[in-house]
Write a structure and sequence with these properties.
Blueprint (H helix, E strand, L loop, with lengths): L16 H4 L4 H9 L3 E4 L4 E3 L7 E7 L2 E6 L5 E7 L4 E2 L1 H6 L6 E4 L3 E7 H10 L1 H27 L2 H17 L9 E3 L2 H8 L3 H13 L3 E4 L2 E4 L2 H8 L7
Antiparallel strand pairs: 1-8, 2-7, 3-6, 3-8, 4-5, 4-7, 9-11, 10-11
């Protein structure tokens, strides 16, 4: 079932895929196609917060979690990037160190794009630059929304929202609406919802008993998206 009309998913998602669509075939080949691709295993770190970036990354296959680590070593996942997206360009544009870390959420195939190549395309394609800045603006709104939820919502609502967002992410794997499987560890789900792992396990059990979802190991199936949206307390008409 589509979220159209029941949940404002655009407040929670941003993507750079449409940005890349603005490139000419020549510029796309220069930026993406001529780069080699490297395999990353689930959990492998792509870049760390605080490093000076030497380039950006394009995801050919898999999903990447972008996260920050607090003083107690706990991860807060701030975004999940899908195949077809660019990551790591914020620090290049700002001429700063990386503001967050990135790691493979599952096995991935990723291309590294040198900083010089990225800046060359920015200079060569004003439309690409404008779309990228528009994407950054929307991304800021999404992250501000996420911060608001972490501070104001209950654990149950946060988990429900995280599951709805992940359902949209995993729909991109070619599965049908009724067959979307969320393959994610409870630790990563806790990092995304901003709650303790034991609370994730307890709440998933409650959601399962209420017929909202089913689980098998780390896999999760959403059975009743309408009830999940109701649990999020964030459908249309809710702040």
């Amino acid at each position: 079932m589509s979220l159209s009309g029941i949940f404002p998913i655009d407040k929670w998602e941003f993507t750079t895929q449409s940005v890349l669509n603005t490139l000419s075939e020549e510029d796309y080949n220069f930026l993406i196609s001529r780069q080699g691709a490297q395999k990353y295993q689930k959990g492998e770190i792509i870049f760390k917060e605080g490093v000076v970036p030497s380039g950006i990354y394009f995801i050919h296959q898999g999903k990447i979690k972008k996260y920050k680590v607090d003083r107690n070593g706990r991860e807060q996942i701030i975004y999940v990037a899908n195949k077809g997206e660019l990551i790591g360009y914020h620090a290049i544009l700002a001429e700063e160190r990386s503001p967050d870390s990135a790691a493979a959420l599952e096995d991935c195939l990723i291309s590294f794009i040198p900083k010089e190549d990225f800046l060359t395309i920015l200079d060569r394609s004003p439309l690409f630059m404008r779309r990228l800045l528009k994407s950054l603006s929307h991304e800021f709104s999404v992250l501000a929304n996420s911060i608001s939820v972490i501070s104001q919502r209950t654990a149950s609502e946060r988990l429900a929202i995280s599951l709805i967002i992940l359902r949209e992410k995993f729909k991109g794997d070619g599965s049908g609406e009724k067959d979307v499987i969320l393959n994610i560890s409870r630790m990563d789900l806790a990092g995304m919802a901003g709650i303790a792992q034991e609370n994730v396990i307890r709440l998933l059990k409650e959601f399962k008993e209420e017929g909202v979802l089913e689980t098998d190991g780390r896999k999760i199936w959403i059975k009743d998206i309408k009830r999940l949206v109701k649990k999020s307390n964030y459908g249309f008409g809710n702040p």
